[in-house]
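Handout, page 2. Input:
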Amino acid sequence: MLQYLPSRTMSLFKDFNKRFIHFLQKIVKEHYETFNKNNVRDITDSLIEQCLEKKVDTNTATQIPKQKIVNLVNDLFGAGFDTVTTGLSWSLMYLVTYPHIQKKIQEELDQTIGWERRPRMLDRSMLPYTEAFILEMFRHSSFIPFTIPHSTTRDTVLNGYYIPKDRCVFVNQWQVNHDEKLWKDPLTFNPERFLNAERTQVNRETGEKVLVFSLGKRKCIGEPIARWQVFLFLSTLLQQLEFSVCDGKKVDMTPLYGLTMKHRRCEHFQVKQRFPMKSMN
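Output:
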């Protein structure tokens, strides 16, 4: 019934969605008009190519509706852009709050990759502390506290609780990530909780306990892409730059609640180059 009550926030949200969909419709229309299968320019072209190939395979003359492409592109932006940038932003807040952790990551990057090239996806398994930091950032911030709504497809019982069919359900990821039965000192930020005894590898069993992409067969299908993006962006940033706050200032880590939790704007954030700029592969 809340949808019928006046809400400026909801009105702004609906207005933003209308303007964004209109923008996407315009972009997709331009892509259709200039599409060249021999020159796939971006993800929108790739989606159009897939739809057109399906059209040929099914021997139908029906044009794939542009709205289908619009919805797919909207999902990619909505599910991928905000979550990845939010994760990276929280990462930077933790790095300036715990500068000794930032130094450890940079030492690992320097020893493993050096300065002559940029980090690559293949480097991920050789950077266990960096990967452990990312996992702890996911766990400690839990910036996606609840999953998007799901629905039960049949009557079921979970841990003694009866859940009827077609009931809206959420996963409380924040609670799982801060459960004292699963984590020692869950409120403490400690990347090393994910490393093995020798500190040479990430303990995958422990890492799988972190919930940020939901769980089960209906969990986020973009999870692998998101993990790679966070790793590549963060490792590249830390290889090149050093992050800090002005002397005597502290970062306010109090979250601003929403579908994804943001941190407050940091007015005292500083960035400096770690070494002279040079051409890199």
